[in-house]
């Protein structure tokens, strides 16, 4: 930056400094985010596309920083993965989601929940035990919980097979998130332990604009159906996308066109109206 000189230099280094200050605030802020009660979950419905019934909710993490305001998980999850805070935060997410689901079960006993899990969490020695204990403590049946994981985990076959076996013993469902964006898309499908694929939203949003993307979506759906996997299309933003997916044989869908993610009270109202 030195040779830039003049105003350019000033601007450049100021921006850089601001960036470094922000990273440090995020990094430090995360360490106290749980005890300062700055984390909360919002919930987005997943519907059965034929009947439009809500079959489950995905829990999505939100962080309200005292000074910086609300921060996107896309920004802070990578920081938490780096500084290790993803472990206690991930545990908090799992516990909070299960506790919330238990509460909803008194009115909506069939409701399921999906929780995002970082690869870093799964690599923790006792992660499966944490899942089991959280289910036992909350009184939620394992069959009502889905763990959403990414394809990157599947690159280590020996490890993933072992840990997935444990998850199957416990009885939780496994879903591959952002399917189609990773390296190992096809080999993932041969794992017996996977229950669901979530087709990445970038495909869904382009499926009607780009013919080739549309073909990819159809191919994933056909493949999933042939392999007896449940398919969830994420990021549905229009009625046309929803209809096209239904016609292609995709069972489940999620996206702003159906509902944005909402805090628990609003979500409960949404669910009560929908289930009447
Ligand atoms: P994801 O798991 O792929 O979650 C879907 C993201 O797409 C969410 O963003 C959701 O709000 C957004 N979304 C839903 N429907 C639509 C739509 O129709 N259009 C568009 N454009 N977006 C839609 P969000 O909540 O900002 O989360 C971003 C990512 O952060 C998630 O992507 C997930 O990878 C990660 N994340 C969120 N919560 C957690 C968590 O508790 N633990 C971990 N490890 N990661 C999390
Ligand atoms: Ca997800
Ligand atoms: Ca996703
Ligand atoms: Ca199955």
TrEMBL record:
Report the residue ranges that make up the EAL domain in this protein: 23-275
| The entry's keywords | Membrane, Transmembrane, Transmembrane helix
Q: Write down what this protein is called.
A: EAL domain-containing protein
**Organism of origin:** Sporosarcina oncorhynchi
Upper lineage ranks?
Answer: Bacteria, Bacillati, Bacillota, Bacilli, Bacillales
**Full-protein residues shown:** 242 to 517 of 517
